[in-house]
Amino acid sequence: MAKISNPDPASTGSGAGLFLTFGASLAALLIGLVVIFAATDKGHAFTTEALRRGEVERQPQVIPDFALQNGAGGSSALRQLLAGDKKIWIVDFVYTRCQTVCTSLGSSFQQLQLQIQQRGLQGRVGLLSVSFDPVNDDAQALRDYATRMRLDPQVWRIVTLASVQDRRRLLDAFGIMVVPAPLGEFEHNAALHVVTHDGRLVSIIDYQAQALALDTALAWSQ
């Protein structure tokens, strides 16, 4: 008659321990996936900027008012500027000394300006560049930028904040991330922001998607 041996208690305990460890790891993984799923808008977005874009698309954001200065040395409030011509505005954020992403933004706006001119849309869509560097971007710097980028004032305007104390509030309102860089420069993200004449941010679009930005602005101008 064959003898049935009892399992080794040590090996049994080891197997149970491995099973418990595996179970705990699996549970932690599932919990982590649930957290990520919730934090990334049900998996639709995996960056802060993408989350912000989705949030704005679902619920347009009323932007705060800010004091601005233009290249002629005049001043106005942001809401006043937006409401003046009853246009839909495509807004970007720059500083005039920038040689990196701002150059790409400028090229995007140049292409948009040309499209607006060719299609006779000056009365419906405007372009607004806002400098977040009022310390260096005085009236002369704004004028130099306008000349360099060949701004048509009927289409494209550039302004700067009147007070550097407003920078953080402005950037937060539009979801712009700015990091100081060497030599007094900045690293920052870039996008095209569609804003209504009554001061609502209704869409944030990749700066290379000029056609989409223009179509979105036109849809809101109906």
Task: Summarize, please.
This protein is α+β, with helices and mostly antiparallel strands and 222 residues long.
Describe the 3D structure:
The chain has helices at 9-39, 48-58, 78-84, 101-119, 139-149, 167-174, 210-220, and strands at 61-62, 67-70, 75-77, 88-94, 125-131, 156-161, 178-180, 186-188, 192-195, 200-205. The chain is globular and about 40 Å long. The protein is an alpha+beta fold and 222 residues long. A hairpin with a 5-residue loop joins strand 7 and strand 8. It has one domain (59-220): Glutaredoxin (3-Layer(aba) Sandwich), CATH 3.40.30.10. Helix content is 44%, strand content 20%. It is built from 7 helices and 10 strands. The model is unreliable at 1-5 and 31-46 (pLDDT under 50).
Write the layout of secondary structure elements.
Elements: H1 9-39, H2 48-58, E1 61-62, E2 67-70, E3 75-77, H3 78-84, E4 88-94, H4 101-119, E5 125-131, H5 139-149, E6 156-161, H6 167-174, E7 178-180, E8 186-188, E9 192-195, E10 200-205, H7 210-220
Parallel strand pairs: 4-5, 5-6
Antiparallel strand pairs: 1-10, 2-3, 2-6, 4-9, 7-8, 9-10
Labels describing this entry:
222 residues; alpha+beta; disordered N terminus; two-stranded antiparallel sheet; 44% helix
CATH superfamily: Glutaredoxin
Q: Name the overall outline.
A: globular
Largest sheet: 8 strands, mixed
Strand count? 10
Strand arrangement, major sheet: 1-10-9-4-5-6-2-3
Q: Judging by the overall fold, what is the CATH architecture?
A: 3-Layer(aba) Sandwich
Measured by DSSP, the beta-strand proportion falls in 15-25%
Which class best fits the helix and strand makeup?
alpha+beta
Total domain modules:
1
- Rg: 26 Å
| Count of helix runs | 7
Low-confidence stretches are 1-5, 31-46
- Give me the strand/helix succession: HHEEEHEHEHEHEEEEH
Topology-level CATH name? Glutaredoxin
Mean pLDDT level? 82
CATH C-level class is Alpha Beta
End-to-end distance: 93 Å
